[in-house]
Specification:
The chain has 216 residues and is an alpha/beta fold. The chain has one domain: Rossmann fold (3-Layer(aba) Sandwich), CATH 3.40.50. It is built from 8 helices and 7 strands, in the order E-H-E-H-E-H-E-H-E-H-E-H-E-H-H. Strands 3-2-4-1-5-6-7 form a 7-stranded parallel β-sheet, with helices on both faces. Strand 6, helix 6 and strand 7 form a beta-alpha-beta unit. Helix 2 packs across helix 7 and helix 4 crosses helix 5. Bound molecules: adenosine-5'-triphosphate and magnesium ion. Adenosine-5'-triphosphate binds next to helix 1 and helix 7. Pfam families: CbiA (PF01656). It comes from Wenzhouxiangella limi.
Length: 216
């Protein structure tokens, strides 16, 4: 059975593509058959995979489906027999109906969120979309993934504030680390960066464990 995971948020820049490619790359390295559906016109996920060295290709397939819009859920169904996991990287929900469509067929939605008041407020919009999708997709699970977390008192307090948001929060957050940017530029997995990305590697492995456990 193929599991479908959508990565969505209301606004841009919270880390959707970073989480998508991090988790997808980890699943791929673990030997699973993984497809990333790039539903964003900006094509950041597609560019990430294209930037890879010929000698070390990104270990998952990426397909661009930004043109599908509200028909995305139908297009995604066509791939389900060929993959263990399909991860859908979406554009900001305030700009597109792709997230709404993707959630109709998803098992799980990950909402990366930067723990700051402004980002928290804007994330409210995705809550409404998730509730809407649950009217038809009752078993849709969802959790917040704190991203760009800083190890300060404010950072900790902000993560605690996420718990009041109405969705589950992963205990596996991602820190603010250059490794995530470097991986995107190099077209690499986080793991492919090696020793210099030690902390990011353990974060993304833990997040992948959490995602797999949720889907069991
Ligand atoms: N944990 C992190 N540490 C450092 N930089 C990060 C982290 N997460 C994301 N970034 C960087 O922040 C920028 C935005 O991240 P990303 O592209 O993943 O967000 P997005 O939600 O997909 O944005 P968009 O809505 O534009 O698609 C990128 O340059 C990315 O490399
Ligand atoms: Mg993106």
């Amino acid at each position: 059975m193929c599991s479908i995971v959508t990565i969505a948020n209301q606004k841009g820049g919270a880390g959707k593509t970073t989480v998508t490619m991090g988790v997808a790359g980890t699943l791929g390295l673990r030997g699973h058959k993984v497809l990333v559906v790039d539903a964003d016109l900006q094509a950041t996920a597609s560019r990430w995979a294209c930037a890879a060295d010929e000698g070390q290709p990104f270990p998952v397939a990426v397909t661009g489906l930004a043109a599908a819009g509200a028909k995305l859920h139908r297009e995604v169904r066509k791939f389900l027999n060929d993959y263990d996991y399909v991860l859908i990287d979406t554009p900001p929900a305030m700009e597109s109906s792709a997230p709404q469509s993707a959630l109709l067929v998803s098992d799980l939605v990950l909402v990366p969120v930067i723990p700051s008041p402004a980002d928290l407020w804007s994330a409210q919009g995705i809550l409404a979309i998730i509730e809407g999708a649950r009217v038809v997709n009752e078993s849709l699970r969802a959790f917040l993934v704190p991203n760009m977390v800083t190890h300060t008192v404010l950072g900790r307090e902000s993560v605690e504030a996420l718990a009041e948001f109405g969705l589950g929060v992963t205990e596996t957050s991602l820190g603010h680390r250059t490794a995530y940017r470097e991986a995107a530029i190099e077209g690499n997995t986080i793991q492919g960066l090696g020793k210099r990305a030690k902390s990011a590697i353990s974060e993304i492995e833990a997040l992948c464990d959490r995602v797999m456990a949720e889907l069991e």
